[in-house]
Design goal:
10 helices, alpha+beta, 25 strands, 8-stranded antiparallel β-sheet
Amino acid sequence: MNTKNIAILAIVTLIVVMIAAQFSSTTHAPEDHLAGQAFFPELLDQLKDVDSIHIQTATDDFTVEKKDDTWGLTSSHHYPVAMDKVSKVLNGMASFVLLEKKTANPALHPRLELMNVTTSDAKSSLIELKQAGNTVASALLGKTKVAKSDNTRTEIYLRKPAEDQTWLVMGTLNYFSKTSNEWLDKTISDIDAKRIRAVSITRIDMDAITISKQTESDTAYTLSDLPENAEVSEAYKLQNIASSLDGLNLDDVVPLEGFEFDDSAAQVVFNSFDGLEVTAKVMAKDGKHYLSLQAVAKSDNAEPIKAPAEADENKAGDPPKLEETTEQHDMRIAKEVEDFNQKVSQWVYLIPEYKYKNLLPKKEELFKLKEAVEESVDDADTDTSEKVEVPSVESSPASIENMPSISIPPATETAAPITQADFATMLKQAAERAKQQQLQNPQAAMAHPITAQNEKGETINLPDLFRQAAEKAKKEAEARKAEAQTQP
């Protein structure tokens, strides 16, 4: 290559380098300048004016609006939403800080999960913040990852809806609710179960149920109108009824206006110790469980709060109970009733099935018949008894292999024959009763020990022997049963 050609090549190379340098300067300098700045620079000052949040995904499309200082879900008749979800989205959008400019090629959008939400398989989420119908900020959010520089924040790929250019930003919006139902304020009622004095349940197709307790400190409720010789089967079932308004959450909600409870609806009335009465209507229909609530103040049931005695201090973590006057009490309950009704009186709630069952148990599920008192060994009629001969005791202590004679009542024409399994149960029960007699009256037991003599005149301990006999008889009965099943 001659000197002239080398000179020409050098000049061309210099021109290319200069052009490249100029291009690089004009395209990347602004990016370096923007890095670290807010993606929505004016949004922080506009947050207080935002009155609408629109969220759209491939599977849901809903709007949360602010009316009279209350945020509500438009698709659920403006039922209040959880304020923490509103704050999370508003502050999260305002927190976005630019990190890097990414691709503007639409073909690469799926890799960043930034396809349009109208695409059936899109994983993106569209968020639009508005004020008086005008869009204040909007973004299509895609793939996320933990921020490299701050693990309390998230790096998010996003783009503006009308643009192909994508960006990597960092912010606090690591997760937000993408379905409308998740936005609803789920809490219906949170009335402490300890306050409930009595609950009455009435419905057309079942027996009425009333449970109650005398004082707030009582640990268990009683069931009214128990059948003769019956007792509460499991105390927790009564407690579940009283706790129905404590932590009561909704699955969904519909307006009370236009909704009708039919004749199958039950009425559940809760009365508190301090004069609050809440009436619930409950109904199951088409696999769903509906509930409406209304509260009133009942001054005749009111018990103003009294300062606790030294011996009855509050549990650890409970706020101190301050004594209140009757007037203060009435004002407190009136305010509670007003706030409660303002929240619930216009709505019918769909509640979980387990809550419905706690509210409306069947009365027969709440009690059991007491076991009949067994006739004691001492009261048995020995004149008509039959003797069951067993081998005599050969050595002491007594063992199951050396059994004395034991008396049992004879079978009659109307009575079922006593099987060996029944006999084993009788022996075990007799042994337990004998043991309890010893524990309850040890002096009498010493004077009259529960023993017997076999035909050789040897003294044996009946409780121990009966217990052994019961176990042996049970095993033999099971062995014969198994043997009979194997025979043709």
